[in-house]
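check these tokens.
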Amino acid sequence: MRAAPTADAAAERDHAELHLLIRGFQVSRMIRAAADLAIADRIPPDEWRSVDELASCCAVLPQPLLRVLRALAACGIFRVTVDGLVAHSRRSLLLRTDAPNSLHHAARFWTAPGSWGAWADLDAALRGETPHRASWNTSRFEYLRHHPDEAHVFDAFMAHTPEGRHGALAAAHDFSSATLVVDVGGGNGEALRLILRRYPHHHGAYRRVELQKGWSNVTADVGSHSGCHLSSNGQEAA
């Protein structure tokens, strides 16, 4: 029978765990670096790759990359040998883009500069302000309009939300009486694709809001040249 931990051991564990939480932003930033470099996709699920090989593929220096991967391995993300070979752990497999409920896009979205800066100004919320506006002097979507690379990351995250919100919507709502399902501001149409898979005889259309053009009058031209129609198999058509 395992002995119960002593008070001193429990206090030491609590101290270590809280210390890691305090420095959690560093772990998040390293996870994002790995996701930006697609490290998880560059390592086959059941194989090893050398840090030198990974660094060459990513056009980065091997020694800094090794330090990042060793730090992540200490958190159970990847496995790293003493001679610099890297393989997957159960956690790092979740960063592959082909993993069910992949966290790759979440790792990039939540740590992107827009989100990162807004969380840095969290104190603004305690004063009744909006952190994102306090950080960037603009709204979330106005910010994305001027940062198209982050807008692309945002779209990818919304299409691959880890909690499966699109599938939950498709399963929860009865669309059987509809003949046309329209998703306004539908990103890349992922929610609509899942709905049409459940209702293969329906037609769908989504209007992808162009962040460069803003949100005005988006309902006026659903299905126009700036929108996109989907057939029941989820393929886009002009």
